[in-house]
Amino acid sequence: xxxxxxxxVIEGHDPIExxxxxxxxxxDVIDVRTLTNHGYxxxxxxxxxxxxxxxxxxxxxxxxxxxxxxxxxxxQLADNCDYLDVCYLLLHGELPNEAEKSHFDHIIMHHTMxxxxxxxxxxxxxxxxxxxxxMVGVVGALSxxxxxxLDIANEKHxxxxxxxxxxxMPTLAAMAYKxxxxxxxxxxxxxxxxxGNFLHMMFSNPCEQYEVSPTxxxxxxxxxxxxxDHEQNASTSTVRLAGSSGAxxxxxxxxxxxxxxxxxHGGANEAVLNMLAEIGDESHIDEFIARAxxxxxxxxxxxxxxxxxxxxxxxxxxxxxxxxxxLAELGxxxxxxxxxxxxxxxxxxxxxxFVEKKLYPNVxxxxxxxxxxxxxPTEMFTVLFAVGRTPGWIAHWKEMISGPYRIxxxxxxxxxxxxxxxxx
Length: 424
Ligand code: CMC
Hints:
By secondary structure, the chain is mainly alpha-helical. 49% of the residues lie in helices and 5% in strands.
Protein backbone atom coordinates (compact mmCIF):
# COMPACT_ATOMS: atom_id res chain seq x y z
CA UNK A 1 0.00 0.00 0.00
CA UNK A 2 1.34 3.38 -1.01
CA UNK A 3 1.82 5.90 1.79
CA UNK A 4 2.06 8.84 -0.60
CA UNK A 5 2.06 9.42 -4.35
CA UNK A 6 4.84 11.11 -6.35
CA UNK A 7 3.93 12.78 -9.64
CA UNK A 8 6.51 12.69 -12.40
CA VAL A 9 5.93 15.40 -14.99
CA ILE A 10 7.58 14.86 -18.35
CA GLU A 11 7.06 17.42 -21.08
CA GLY A 12 4.38 16.29 -23.53
CA HIS A 13 3.05 13.50 -21.25
CA ASP A 14 0.32 13.24 -18.68
CA PRO A 15 1.82 13.22 -15.16
CA ILE A 16 2.89 9.73 -14.12
CA GLU A 17 1.82 8.70 -10.64
CA UNK A 18 4.37 6.70 -8.68
CA UNK A 19 3.59 5.24 -5.24
CA UNK A 20 5.83 6.10 -2.30
CA UNK A 21 6.39 3.52 0.45
CA UNK A 22 7.80 3.94 3.94
CA UNK A 23 9.93 1.36 5.67
CA UNK A 24 10.26 1.03 9.45
CA UNK A 25 13.40 3.20 9.38
CA UNK A 26 15.26 5.14 6.70
CA UNK A 27 14.23 7.14 3.64
CA ASP A 28 10.97 6.48 1.80
CA VAL A 29 11.21 4.89 -1.63
CA ILE A 30 9.51 5.84 -4.89
CA ASP A 31 8.25 2.77 -6.72
CA VAL A 32 9.34 3.26 -10.32
CA ARG A 33 8.42 -0.20 -11.58
CA THR A 34 5.64 1.06 -13.86
CA LEU A 35 7.87 3.65 -15.57
CA THR A 36 8.81 1.17 -18.28
CA ASN A 37 5.13 1.09 -19.33
CA HIS A 38 5.53 4.79 -20.15
CA GLY A 39 8.69 4.20 -22.19
CA TYR A 40 11.27 5.31 -19.62
CA UNK A 41 13.95 3.70 -17.49
CA UNK A 42 15.53 5.25 -14.41
CA UNK A 43 19.26 5.91 -14.73
CA UNK A 44 21.39 5.33 -11.62
CA UNK A 45 24.90 3.97 -12.29
CA UNK A 46 26.46 2.78 -9.05
CA UNK A 47 22.95 2.52 -7.56
CA UNK A 48 23.39 5.75 -5.60
CA UNK A 49 19.61 6.26 -5.26
CA UNK A 50 18.24 2.79 -5.86
CA UNK A 51 16.68 0.42 -3.33
CA UNK A 52 17.01 -2.95 -5.06
CA UNK A 53 14.76 -4.90 -2.69
CA UNK A 54 12.97 -4.73 0.62
CA UNK A 55 14.71 -6.42 3.50
CA UNK A 56 14.24 -7.00 7.23
CA UNK A 57 17.82 -7.95 8.03
CA UNK A 58 20.10 -4.93 8.44
CA UNK A 59 19.63 -1.18 8.72
CA UNK A 60 22.29 1.49 8.28
CA UNK A 61 21.93 5.19 9.01
CA UNK A 62 25.07 6.43 7.30
CA UNK A 63 24.67 10.02 8.51
CA UNK A 64 24.49 9.01 12.15
CA UNK A 65 26.91 6.08 11.92
CA UNK A 66 24.30 3.51 13.00
CA UNK A 67 24.34 -0.18 12.07
CA UNK A 68 21.56 -2.49 13.26
CA UNK A 69 21.16 -6.21 12.67
CA UNK A 70 17.51 -7.20 13.14
CA UNK A 71 17.23 -4.00 15.21
CA UNK A 72 20.22 -4.58 17.50
CA UNK A 73 23.13 -2.08 17.38
CA UNK A 74 26.40 -3.63 16.20
CA UNK A 75 28.39 -2.59 19.30
CA GLN A 76 25.86 -4.32 21.59
CA LEU A 77 26.07 -7.49 19.51
CA ALA A 78 29.88 -7.38 19.51
CA ASP A 79 30.00 -6.91 23.29
CA ASN A 80 27.31 -9.37 24.35
CA CYS A 81 27.06 -12.12 21.73
CA ASP A 82 29.29 -14.64 20.07
CA TYR A 83 29.52 -14.98 16.32
CA LEU A 84 27.14 -17.94 16.12
CA ASP A 85 24.49 -15.95 18.02
CA VAL A 86 24.78 -13.30 15.33
CA CYS A 87 24.67 -15.89 12.53
CA TYR A 88 21.46 -17.28 14.05
CA LEU A 89 20.04 -13.76 14.42
CA LEU A 90 20.74 -12.90 10.80
CA LEU A 91 19.28 -16.16 9.52
CA HIS A 92 16.24 -16.42 11.80
CA GLY A 93 15.43 -12.85 12.83
CA GLU A 94 15.76 -13.42 16.60
CA LEU A 95 18.62 -14.26 18.93
CA PRO A 96 18.51 -17.93 19.92
CA ASN A 97 17.26 -19.08 23.32
CA GLU A 98 19.47 -21.50 25.26
CA ALA A 99 18.14 -24.67 23.59
CA GLU A 100 18.19 -23.14 20.11
CA LYS A 101 21.72 -21.89 20.69
CA SER A 102 23.13 -25.20 21.82
CA HIS A 103 21.43 -26.96 18.88
CA PHE A 104 22.74 -24.38 16.40
CA ASP A 105 26.27 -24.47 17.84
CA HIS A 106 26.23 -28.26 17.65
CA ILE A 107 25.09 -28.27 14.02
CA ILE A 108 27.62 -25.66 12.89
CA MET A 109 30.53 -27.20 14.78
CA HIS A 110 29.67 -30.68 13.43
CA HIS A 111 29.71 -29.73 9.76
CA THR A 112 33.19 -28.22 9.80
CA MET A 113 34.96 -30.96 7.84
CA UNK A 114 34.97 -30.79 4.07
CA UNK A 115 34.65 -33.76 1.72
CA UNK A 116 38.07 -35.42 1.62
CA UNK A 117 38.16 -35.19 -2.19
CA UNK A 118 37.97 -31.41 -1.92
CA UNK A 119 41.54 -31.57 -0.61
CA UNK A 120 42.63 -32.55 -4.13
CA UNK A 121 41.35 -29.26 -5.53
CA UNK A 122 44.06 -27.36 -3.73
CA UNK A 123 46.94 -29.11 -5.47
CA UNK A 124 45.62 -27.75 -8.78
CA UNK A 125 46.47 -24.24 -7.60
CA UNK A 126 49.96 -22.75 -7.66
CA UNK A 127 51.39 -22.37 -4.15
CA UNK A 128 51.61 -18.61 -4.70
CA UNK A 129 47.95 -18.28 -5.71
CA UNK A 130 46.08 -15.51 -3.96
CA UNK A 131 43.91 -17.25 -1.33
CA UNK A 132 40.86 -15.33 -2.59
CA UNK A 133 41.38 -17.01 -6.00
CA UNK A 134 41.36 -20.36 -4.20
CA MET A 135 38.24 -19.43 -2.21
CA VAL A 136 36.29 -18.43 -5.33
CA GLY A 137 37.15 -21.83 -6.81
CA VAL A 138 36.66 -24.16 -3.86
CA VAL A 139 33.50 -22.55 -2.48
CA GLY A 140 31.93 -22.78 -5.95
CA ALA A 141 33.12 -26.39 -6.05
CA LEU A 142 31.09 -27.23 -2.93
CA SER A 143 28.10 -27.44 -5.28
CA UNK A 144 29.77 -30.45 -6.91
CA UNK A 145 29.90 -32.26 -3.55
CA UNK A 146 26.71 -31.52 -1.66
CA UNK A 147 23.97 -32.46 -4.10
CA UNK A 148 21.51 -32.99 -1.26
CA UNK A 149 21.36 -29.25 -0.53
CA LEU A 150 21.05 -27.73 -4.00
CA ASP A 151 17.27 -27.60 -4.42
CA ILE A 152 16.58 -23.94 -3.75
CA ALA A 153 12.82 -24.54 -3.64
CA ASN A 154 13.24 -26.94 -0.72
CA GLU A 155 13.38 -25.18 2.65
CA LYS A 156 15.31 -28.03 4.25
CA HIS A 157 17.93 -27.93 1.47
CA UNK A 158 18.30 -24.17 1.95
CA UNK A 159 18.86 -24.63 5.66
CA UNK A 160 21.41 -27.42 5.22
CA UNK A 161 23.30 -25.36 2.61
CA UNK A 162 23.37 -22.39 5.03
CA UNK A 163 24.77 -24.56 7.83
CA UNK A 164 27.35 -26.14 5.55
CA UNK A 165 28.59 -22.81 4.27
CA UNK A 166 28.93 -21.23 7.72
CA UNK A 167 30.62 -24.39 9.04
CA UNK A 168 33.05 -24.97 6.21
CA MET A 169 34.20 -21.47 5.30
CA PRO A 170 36.83 -21.29 8.09
CA THR A 171 38.05 -24.78 7.17
CA LEU A 172 38.53 -23.81 3.52
CA ALA A 173 40.11 -20.49 4.49
CA ALA A 174 42.66 -22.18 6.77
CA MET A 175 43.34 -24.79 4.07
CA ALA A 176 44.12 -22.02 1.58
CA TYR A 177 46.67 -20.65 4.05
CA LYS A 178 48.24 -24.03 4.87
CA UNK A 179 48.54 -24.78 1.17
CA UNK A 180 50.36 -21.50 0.56
CA UNK A 181 53.03 -22.34 3.16
CA UNK A 182 53.35 -25.99 2.21
CA UNK A 183 52.03 -27.40 5.48
CA UNK A 184 49.49 -30.22 5.79
CA UNK A 185 45.88 -29.28 6.31
CA UNK A 186 44.75 -29.26 9.93
CA UNK A 187 41.38 -30.87 10.64
CA UNK A 188 38.83 -28.82 12.58
CA UNK A 189 38.25 -29.33 16.29
CA UNK A 190 34.58 -29.30 17.09
CA UNK A 191 35.12 -28.73 20.82
CA UNK A 192 36.51 -25.24 20.20
CA UNK A 193 34.60 -22.03 19.59
CA UNK A 194 34.10 -20.90 15.99
CA UNK A 195 36.92 -18.33 16.25
CA GLY A 196 39.12 -20.64 18.34
CA ASN A 197 38.76 -23.49 15.84
CA PHE A 198 39.77 -21.17 13.03
CA LEU A 199 42.95 -20.15 14.86
CA HIS A 200 43.65 -23.85 15.59
CA MET A 201 43.33 -24.79 11.89
CA MET A 202 45.56 -21.85 10.92
CA PHE A 203 48.36 -22.34 13.42
CA SER A 204 48.45 -25.95 14.64
CA ASN A 205 50.55 -28.48 12.78
CA PRO A 206 51.00 -32.24 13.22
CA CYS A 207 54.11 -31.65 15.34
CA GLU A 208 52.71 -28.93 17.57
CA GLN A 209 49.28 -28.03 18.90
CA TYR A 210 48.50 -24.30 18.90
CA GLU A 211 47.24 -23.26 22.33
CA VAL A 212 44.18 -21.18 21.57
CA SER A 213 44.08 -18.13 23.84
CA PRO A 214 40.49 -17.38 24.91
CA THR A 215 41.16 -13.65 24.46
CA UNK A 216 42.36 -14.13 20.90
CA UNK A 217 39.56 -16.57 20.09
CA UNK A 218 37.06 -13.99 21.39
CA UNK A 219 38.75 -11.27 19.33
CA UNK A 220 38.47 -13.45 16.21
CA UNK A 221 34.79 -14.00 16.99
CA UNK A 222 34.27 -10.24 17.39
CA UNK A 223 35.96 -9.55 14.07
CA UNK A 224 33.67 -12.05 12.38
CA UNK A 225 30.66 -10.35 14.05
CA UNK A 226 31.78 -6.95 12.74
CA UNK A 227 31.84 -8.34 9.20
CA UNK A 228 28.69 -10.47 9.43
CA ASP A 229 26.38 -8.32 7.32
CA HIS A 230 26.15 -4.88 5.80
CA GLU A 231 22.89 -4.45 3.93
CA GLN A 232 22.93 -4.33 0.10
CA ASN A 233 26.69 -3.84 -0.44
CA ALA A 234 28.40 -4.91 -3.69
CA SER A 235 29.02 -8.53 -2.73
CA THR A 236 25.59 -9.05 -1.13
CA SER A 237 23.90 -7.51 -4.16
CA THR A 238 25.99 -9.86 -6.31
CA VAL A 239 24.79 -12.85 -4.27
CA ARG A 240 21.19 -11.68 -4.62
CA LEU A 241 21.56 -11.13 -8.37
CA ALA A 242 23.18 -14.53 -8.90
CA GLY A 243 20.50 -16.11 -6.68
CA SER A 244 17.70 -14.41 -8.62
CA SER A 245 18.51 -16.60 -11.64
CA GLY A 246 17.94 -19.70 -9.50
CA ALA A 247 21.65 -20.51 -9.12
CA UNK A 248 22.55 -22.83 -6.23
CA UNK A 249 23.69 -21.33 -2.90
CA UNK A 250 27.32 -22.42 -3.18
CA UNK A 251 27.63 -20.81 -6.62
CA UNK A 252 25.94 -17.65 -5.29
CA UNK A 253 28.33 -17.34 -2.34
CA UNK A 254 31.29 -17.91 -4.69
CA UNK A 255 30.03 -14.94 -6.75
CA UNK A 256 29.88 -12.88 -3.54
CA UNK A 257 33.48 -13.80 -2.73
CA UNK A 258 34.55 -12.66 -6.20
CA UNK A 259 32.81 -9.29 -5.75
CA UNK A 260 34.27 -8.87 -2.27
CA UNK A 261 37.83 -9.27 -3.52
CA UNK A 262 38.14 -5.79 -5.06
CA UNK A 263 40.09 -3.10 -3.15
CA UNK A 264 37.07 -0.76 -3.05
CA HIS A 265 35.21 -3.45 -1.05
CA GLY A 266 36.65 -6.28 1.09
CA GLY A 267 40.08 -6.08 -0.52
CA ALA A 268 40.59 -2.79 1.30
CA ASN A 269 41.82 -4.49 4.50
CA GLU A 270 44.78 -5.96 2.62
CA ALA A 271 45.34 -2.63 0.86
CA VAL A 272 45.35 -0.75 4.21
CA LEU A 273 48.18 -2.81 5.61
CA ASN A 274 50.17 -2.53 2.39
CA MET A 275 49.61 1.24 2.52
CA LEU A 276 50.71 1.51 6.17
CA ALA A 277 53.84 -0.50 5.34
CA GLU A 278 54.50 1.75 2.34
CA ILE A 279 54.12 4.89 4.48
CA GLY A 280 56.65 3.24 6.77
CA ASP A 281 57.18 6.15 9.11
CA GLU A 282 55.08 8.93 10.61
CA SER A 283 57.26 11.48 8.83
CA HIS A 284 55.87 10.30 5.46
CA ILE A 285 52.18 10.67 6.37
CA ASP A 286 51.81 14.22 5.03
CA GLU A 287 53.10 13.11 1.66
CA PHE A 288 50.47 10.34 1.44
CA ILE A 289 47.69 12.66 2.60
CA ALA A 290 48.71 15.09 -0.14
CA ARG A 291 48.63 12.28 -2.71
CA ALA A 292 45.14 11.20 -1.55
CA UNK A 293 43.91 14.76 -2.09
CA UNK A 294 45.55 15.17 -5.50
CA UNK A 295 42.94 14.75 -8.26
CA UNK A 296 45.67 13.72 -10.70
CA UNK A 297 46.91 10.92 -8.46
CA UNK A 298 44.79 7.75 -8.39
CA UNK A 299 46.01 6.99 -4.84
CA UNK A 300 43.28 6.86 -2.17
CA UNK A 301 43.65 6.58 1.55
CA UNK A 302 42.64 2.96 2.00
CA UNK A 303 40.33 2.26 4.93
CA UNK A 304 38.74 5.70 4.58
CA UNK A 305 35.41 6.64 3.09
CA UNK A 306 32.25 4.70 2.53
CA UNK A 307 29.34 4.87 0.13
CA UNK A 308 26.83 4.90 2.98
CA UNK A 309 28.64 6.12 6.11
CA UNK A 310 29.15 9.86 6.22
CA UNK A 311 30.20 9.53 9.84
CA UNK A 312 32.54 7.26 11.82
CA UNK A 313 31.87 3.64 10.79
CA UNK A 314 30.48 2.09 14.01
CA UNK A 315 32.37 -1.11 13.21
CA UNK A 316 35.69 0.77 13.10
CA UNK A 317 35.19 1.93 16.68
CA UNK A 318 34.75 -1.63 18.00
CA UNK A 319 37.59 -2.81 15.75
CA UNK A 320 39.95 -0.25 17.24
CA UNK A 321 39.08 -1.36 20.80
CA UNK A 322 39.60 -4.99 19.73
CA UNK A 323 43.00 -4.07 18.27
CA UNK A 324 44.00 -2.62 21.63
CA UNK A 325 42.87 -5.80 23.45
CA UNK A 326 44.73 -8.10 21.06
CA LEU A 327 47.95 -6.09 21.14
CA ALA A 328 47.82 -6.01 24.97
CA GLU A 329 47.23 -9.79 25.14
CA LEU A 330 50.15 -10.42 22.80
CA GLY A 331 52.37 -7.97 24.67
CA UNK A 332 52.86 -5.84 21.57
CA UNK A 333 53.52 -2.29 22.68
CA UNK A 334 54.31 0.63 20.40
CA UNK A 335 53.47 -1.29 17.24
CA UNK A 336 54.88 1.01 14.52
CA UNK A 337 52.00 0.36 12.10
CA UNK A 338 49.43 1.08 14.80
CA UNK A 339 51.23 4.32 15.56
CA UNK A 340 51.15 5.31 11.89
CA UNK A 341 47.47 4.31 11.67
CA UNK A 342 46.49 6.34 14.76
CA UNK A 343 48.37 9.41 13.50
CA UNK A 344 46.95 9.03 9.99
CA UNK A 345 43.45 8.83 11.40
CA UNK A 346 44.00 11.92 13.54
CA UNK A 347 45.35 13.96 10.62
CA UNK A 348 42.62 12.81 8.22
CA UNK A 349 39.87 13.59 10.75
CA UNK A 350 41.14 17.18 10.96
CA UNK A 351 42.03 17.76 7.30
CA UNK A 352 39.40 19.92 5.49
CA UNK A 353 39.46 17.63 2.40
CA PHE A 354 38.44 14.58 4.45
CA VAL A 355 36.13 16.57 6.74
CA GLU A 356 34.22 18.20 3.85
CA LYS A 357 33.86 14.90 1.98
CA LYS A 358 32.92 13.12 5.23
CA LEU A 359 35.64 10.50 4.79
CA TYR A 360 35.95 8.61 8.08
CA PRO A 361 37.82 5.41 8.92
CA ASN A 362 35.85 2.32 7.91
CA VAL A 363 35.83 -1.27 9.17
CA UNK A 364 38.93 -2.16 7.18
CA UNK A 365 41.16 0.46 8.76
CA UNK A 366 42.01 -1.38 11.98
CA UNK A 367 41.22 -5.02 11.13
CA UNK A 368 44.53 -5.56 9.34
CA UNK A 369 46.49 -4.47 12.41
CA UNK A 370 44.75 -7.17 14.45
CA UNK A 371 45.24 -9.82 11.78
CA UNK A 372 48.92 -8.96 11.49
CA UNK A 373 49.36 -9.18 15.27
CA UNK A 374 47.70 -12.61 15.20
CA UNK A 375 50.29 -13.73 12.64
CA UNK A 376 47.87 -13.86 9.72
CA PRO A 377 49.51 -12.92 6.41
CA THR A 378 48.19 -9.91 4.50
CA GLU A 379 46.81 -11.93 1.55
CA MET A 380 44.50 -13.74 3.97
CA PHE A 381 42.80 -10.58 5.25
CA THR A 382 40.05 -10.45 2.62
CA VAL A 383 39.47 -14.19 3.08
CA LEU A 384 38.65 -13.49 6.73
CA PHE A 385 36.21 -10.80 5.62
CA ALA A 386 34.59 -13.44 3.39
CA VAL A 387 34.34 -15.93 6.26
CA GLY A 388 32.69 -13.30 8.46
CA ARG A 389 30.31 -12.06 5.74
CA THR A 390 29.02 -15.54 4.84
CA PRO A 391 25.94 -15.50 7.16
CA GLY A 392 24.95 -12.09 5.79
CA TRP A 393 25.18 -13.30 2.20
CA ILE A 394 23.15 -16.40 3.05
CA ALA A 395 20.55 -14.47 5.05
CA HIS A 396 19.93 -12.15 2.08
CA TRP A 397 19.87 -15.02 -0.41
CA LYS A 398 17.46 -16.94 1.83
CA GLU A 399 15.25 -13.88 2.38
CA MET A 400 14.97 -13.37 -1.38
CA ILE A 401 14.43 -17.01 -2.29
CA SER A 402 11.83 -17.52 0.44
CA GLY A 403 9.48 -14.85 -0.91
CA PRO A 404 8.26 -13.84 -4.35
CA TYR A 405 11.17 -12.63 -6.48
CA ARG A 406 12.06 -12.07 -10.12
CA ILE A 407 15.32 -12.42 -11.92
CA UNK A 408 17.42 -9.25 -11.46
CA UNK A 409 17.74 -7.69 -14.88
CA UNK A 410 18.76 -4.00 -15.04
CA UNK A 411 18.45 -2.03 -18.28
CA UNK A 412 20.80 0.58 -19.74
CA UNK A 413 21.16 3.90 -21.50
CA UNK A 414 22.48 2.68 -24.85
CA UNK A 415 25.12 5.01 -26.31
CA UNK A 416 26.56 2.78 -29.04
CA UNK A 417 26.09 2.75 -32.79
CA UNK A 418 22.63 3.11 -34.28
CA UNK A 419 21.56 0.44 -36.77
CA UNK A 420 24.05 0.24 -39.65
CA UNK A 421 24.56 -2.23 -42.45
CA UNK A 422 27.58 -4.21 -43.52
CA UNK A 423 28.86 -2.99 -46.86
CA UNK A 424 29.19 -5.77 -49.40
N1 CMC B 1 40.83 8.82 -0.21
C1 CMC B 1 40.78 9.99 -0.87
N2 CMC B 1 39.67 10.48 -1.43
C2 CMC B 1 38.54 9.75 -1.36
C3 CMC B 1 38.52 8.52 -0.68
C4 CMC B 1 39.72 8.05 -0.09
N3 CMC B 1 39.75 6.88 0.57
N4 CMC B 1 37.28 7.99 -0.74
C5 CMC B 1 36.54 8.87 -1.44
N5 CMC B 1 37.29 9.93 -1.80
C6 CMC B 1 36.82 11.13 -2.51
C7 CMC B 1 36.65 10.85 -4.00
O1 CMC B 1 37.83 11.15 -4.72
C8 CMC B 1 35.49 11.74 -4.35
O2 CMC B 1 36.00 13.04 -4.51
P1 CMC B 1 35.29 14.09 -5.56
O3 CMC B 1 33.89 14.26 -5.06
O4 CMC B 1 36.13 15.32 -5.44
O5 CMC B 1 35.35 13.42 -6.90
C9 CMC B 1 34.61 11.73 -3.09
O6 CMC B 1 35.52 11.43 -2.02
C10 CMC B 1 33.51 10.70 -3.12
O7 CMC B 1 34.11 9.43 -3.42
P2 CMC B 1 33.43 8.36 -4.37
O8 CMC B 1 34.47 7.43 -4.88
O9 CMC B 1 32.57 9.04 -5.38
O10 CMC B 1 32.49 7.61 -3.33
P3 CMC B 1 31.91 6.16 -3.47
O11 CMC B 1 30.75 6.10 -2.55
O12 CMC B 1 31.67 5.81 -4.88
O13 CMC B 1 33.09 5.21 -2.94
C11 CMC B 1 34.52 3.97 -1.50
C12 CMC B 1 33.17 4.69 -1.65
C13 CMC B 1 34.50 3.15 -0.22
C14 CMC B 1 34.71 3.02 -2.68
C15 CMC B 1 35.65 5.03 -1.46
O14 CMC B 1 35.49 5.86 -0.33
C16 CMC B 1 37.05 4.39 -1.44
O15 CMC B 1 37.59 4.05 -2.50
N6 CMC B 1 37.65 4.19 -0.20
C17 CMC B 1 38.91 3.50 -0.08
C18 CMC B 1 38.69 2.00 -0.17
C19 CMC B 1 38.08 1.43 1.10
O16 CMC B 1 38.54 1.72 2.21
N7 CMC B 1 37.06 0.56 0.93
C20 CMC B 1 36.42 -0.15 2.02
C21 CMC B 1 35.00 0.28 2.23
S1 CMC B 1 34.35 -0.33 3.80
C22 CMC B 1 34.31 -2.05 3.66
C23 CMC B 1 33.38 -2.54 2.64
O17 CMC B 1 32.23 -2.16 2.62
O18 CMC B 1 33.81 -3.39 1.85
